[in-house]
Write a sequence for this structure.
């Protein structure tokens, strides 16, 4: 850098002297203030003026003043030349902007040293300015061209939200959809999505309070057309500038596309495709998050369990069932509120999740409203179900959603078993809990028995004698299964058989019954009773299991029992579901000489029109028809008609549950073939049965 010096002095010798010993610099001279001004006008780049305060045309102070007022000349370094007795002038000159002073008479070495120092300072200043200029250019370039939105904001008080944007780059304008001027005017709060503002402000306050240095979050801006743009934002504090305002820089990146995909994925993972309702996974998530917050929430579930969905699908097809499920979802959807959310948890099950409900009555009213809506709108749709309600204890945070859904299912199934398919409501309570626990214990005992575990639980048979009314002697026994468990004691078959059927354990359990009954038959054979029949009760599930007949013949073969003495009892009600198939199996069994009896006849509502097609040997008239054979009811009894029907169709008639002599007389009079009941004997243990036989054969 060239250092240009202007020497302003009225003394020609002094001017020349200075010019000579500062010859390494570029020197200009002027003899008065006017000439100096002219030189300054004509020459650029003068950096230093050596100024004698005493000028002929103006005072040096006036000259200094005019330099100060000129923007272009203000920065020039002024070195004042004074006489040694002019101390006041020196001070005044320095105050007016002079940087240094030199006393006359001139001392060359001193002046030269000072000028050299000023020249070095000027060069250093120049180099620094050049660097700053380069940095400013780089910063501006980055600010304008960076592929990221940048805004710098100011706030005078961290407690107040008067955030003012002071600088933005083009990408920030583009992402927010607003011009720089609009952004300066509105600020960023106004355009932030209301749902994201609270978190943003909270973080910013922490930043301004110095608790954090920066924060990041995903947030939304609202564009002028109302659309939303998602951004990933990083905000960092900037050290307060001279104006002492709190500054921060905000960097944003448009993530709308990714967010859209995320939102779609989240939607798919939380919703059921068919109905558009929330799914089971989301229920699990929500339930777990409520539990985590441990708010003392009053929570309850209302579950709607549809029955016959599978058979409807089998009969009418998937499309029909799907339409039906959608229709039900639409009916139920109308009952959603912000504190009652609806989920489609399984194909045939819907669940309402209640938070902050008032009391049990609110749940009852709600369920009643659902029942009414479903019943009225599904009247012609061949579908029914039950409603289960489960209230959670307020502090029951640990409950598992699986347990919740299972209890809800139990309650709704209970409703179905008690009230049928009319969407009645059943609450899950202690009683039901006990029932379920008992059911589980029965099931565990059955599993232990079925798998031959070493257990105290026991399955055994009792035998109830069947008497031939014509001969008056015992012609057979009905084998009746008994379950005795360590925990529950004796469990009646009316309880454990349905559980065994529901769990399909009836297949191995039924086989064990057959084996025990066969052993009893062999004992009878050993004792010489060749013609005593033994009836074995058989469930439809057993009968329809693929290898039932094969297993039966295998066991007969292995145990060498007389096939003609086996009677298979099948409850009449099973024929309503699978008539053809069961009839075929019966036919196969009968061909071998086995007898078939239709149990509980008269209660199963089977079509009389098909009764003659039934491949059975005997009909066991249900106890309810025998109960009517006493007192005033006797005249109205149709039992005699049932006996005639049985005979006309070629079956023999057996009366079950005969307890009184009056009943016996009626049955004898109307030609009933056999009877069974407490009047003859209660079911007996094996030994007692054999002794009974000895006396009554
Ligand atoms: P079920 O086959 O109709 O058996 C007759 C039921 O009536 C037996 O009840 C018997 O004890 C009872 N009973 C007989 N005479 C009288 C009477 O005079 N008065 C009264 N009040 N009851 C009488 P239990 O043993 O409790 O069996 C109930 C049902 O459990 C049976 O009805 C049968 O359907 C089923 N069951 C029993 N054992 C088996 C089995 O091994 N397999 C299958 N699948 N079911 C069985
Ligand atoms: Mg029976
Ligand atoms: Mg019966």
């Amino acid at each position: 850098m060239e250092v240009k010096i202007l020497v302003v002095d009225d003394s020609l010798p002094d001017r020349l002297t200075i010019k000579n010993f500062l010859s390494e610099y570029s020197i200009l001279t002027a003899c008065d203030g006017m000439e100096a001004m002219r030189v300054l006008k004509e020459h650029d780049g003068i950096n230093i003026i050596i100024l004698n305060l005493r000028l002929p045309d103006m005072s040096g102070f006036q000259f200094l003043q005019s330099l100060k007022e000129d923007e272009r000349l203000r920065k020039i370094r002024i070195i004042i030349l004074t006489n040694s007795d002019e101390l006041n002038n020196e001070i005044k000159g320095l105050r007016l902007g002079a940087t240094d002073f030199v006393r006359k008479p001139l001392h060359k070495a001193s002046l030269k040293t000072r000028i050299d120092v000023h020249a070095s300072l000027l060069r250093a200043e120049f180099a620094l300015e050049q660097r700053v200029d380069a940095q400013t250019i780089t910063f501006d370039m980055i600010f304008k061209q960076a592929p990221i939105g940048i805004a710098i904001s100011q706030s005078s008080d961290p407690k107040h939200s008067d955030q003012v944007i002071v600088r933005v780059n083009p990408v920030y304008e583009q992402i927010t959809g607003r011009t720089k001027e609009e952004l300066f005017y509105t600020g960023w709060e106004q355009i932030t999505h209301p749902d994201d503002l609270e978190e943003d402000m909270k973080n910013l306050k922490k930043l301004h309070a110095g608790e954090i240095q920066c924060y990041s979050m995903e947030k939304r801006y609202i564009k002028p057309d109302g659309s939303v743009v998602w951004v990933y934002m990083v905000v960092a504090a900037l050290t307060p500038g001279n104006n002492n305002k709190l500054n921060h820089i905000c960097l944003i990146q448009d993530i709308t596309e990714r967010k859209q995909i995320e939102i779609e994925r989240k939607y798919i993972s939380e919703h059921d495709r068919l109905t558009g309702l929330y799914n089971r996974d989301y229920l699990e998530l929500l339930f777990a998050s409520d539990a985590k917050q441990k708010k003392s929430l009053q929570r309850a579930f209302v579950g709607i369990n549809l029955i016959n969905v599978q058979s409807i699908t089998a009969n009418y097809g998937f499309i029909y069932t799907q339409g039906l499920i959608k229709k039900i979802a639409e009916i139920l959807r109308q009952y959603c509120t912000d504190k009652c959310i609806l989920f489609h948890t399984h194909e045939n099950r819907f669940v309402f999740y209640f938070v902050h409900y008032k009391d049990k009555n609110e749940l009852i009213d709600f369920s009643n409203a659902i029942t009414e809506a479903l019943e009225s709108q599904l009247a012609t749709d061949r579908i029914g179900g039950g409603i289960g309600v489960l209230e959670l204890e307020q502090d029951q945070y640990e409950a598992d959603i699986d347990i919740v859904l299972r209890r809800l299912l139990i309650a709704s199934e209970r409703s179905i078993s008690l009230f049928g398919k009319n969407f009645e409501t059943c609450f899950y309570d202690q009683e039901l809990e006990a029932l379920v626990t008992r059911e589980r214990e029965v099931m565990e005992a059955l599993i232990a028995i079925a798998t031959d575990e070493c257990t105290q639980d026991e399955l055994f048979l009792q035998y109830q004698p069947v008497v031939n009314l014509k001969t008056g002697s015992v012609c057979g026994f009905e084998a009746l299964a008994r379950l005795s468990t360590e925990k529950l004691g004796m469990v009646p078959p009316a309880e454990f058989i349905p559980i065994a059927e529901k769990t399909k354990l009836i297949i191995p359990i039924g086989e064990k019954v057959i084996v025990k009954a066969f052993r009893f038959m062999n004992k009878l054979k050993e004792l010489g009773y060749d013609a005593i029949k033994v009836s074995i009760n058989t469930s439809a599930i057993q009968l329809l299991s693929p290898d039932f007949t094969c297993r039966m013949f295998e066991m007969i073969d292995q145990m060498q029992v007389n096939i003609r003495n086996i009677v298979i009892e099948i409850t009449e009600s099973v024929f309503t579901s699978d008539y053809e198939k069961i009839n075929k199996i019966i036919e196969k069994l009968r061909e071998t000489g086995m007898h078939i009896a239709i149990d509980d006849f008269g209660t199963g509502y089977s079509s009389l029109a098909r009764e003659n097609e039934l491949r059975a040997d005997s009909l066991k008239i249900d106890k309810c028809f025998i109960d009517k054979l006493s007192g005033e009811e006797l005249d109205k009894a149709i039992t005699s008609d049932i006996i005639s029907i049985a005979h006309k169709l070629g079956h023999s008639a057996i009366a079950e549950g005969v307890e009184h002599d009056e009943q016996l007389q009626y049955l004898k009079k109307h030609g009933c073939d056999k009877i069974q009941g407490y009047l003859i004997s209660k079911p007996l243990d094996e030994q007692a049965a054999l002794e009974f036989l000895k006396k009554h054969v």
In short: The chain has a mean pLDDT of 90. The chain has 25 helices and 24 strands.
